[in-house]
Design goal:
With about 120 residues, the chain is mainly alpha-helical. It is about 90% helix and about 0% strand. It is built from three helices and no strands.
Length: about 120
């Protein structure tokens, strides 16, 4: 009796999951699309800020506000590294957004395979 009830509960749970799978996949794709768009916007904002800081630093060099060239070189290297990092983030987000827009089923298969690889 208890075994039959447990089997019935599992079957009903599987049935519910099967019914909800298309909606869950649609919501996952929508969420990841928004996530990539927000990543692109954030990366662009940071790149604009880095560019503005670089222009401000260049202006300080022209007006001799820097004590020596060492300060400028350190600032330029840091800005270049931050800028490069966010350019890579921007490119990755654009890549995944294009992939999810053009081939959502392929993206979903890759997403699930990556998730399964992380579990194992």
């Amino acid at each position: 009796m208890i075994k039959e009830q447990m089997i019935e509960i599992v079957k009903s749970g599987l049935s519910w999951t099967a019914q909800q799978a298309p909606e869950i996949m649609g919501q996952l794709i929508l969420w990841r699309t928004c996530d990539y768009i927000l990543g692109i916007i954030f990366s662009l904002i940071i790149l604009i800020i880095v560019y503005r800081i670089f222009l401000n630093t260049e202006h300080k060099i022209e007006s001799d506000e820097f004590a020596d060239w060492g300060d400028y070189i350190v600032t330029a290297v840091i800005l270049a590294m931050v800028g490069l990092f966010f350019v890579i983030v921007l490119i990755c987000n654009i890549y995944f957004l294009l992939q999810i827009s053009i081939a959502p089923k392929v993206w979903l298969i890759e997403y699930i395979s990556d998730a399964m690889r992380c579990i194992n």
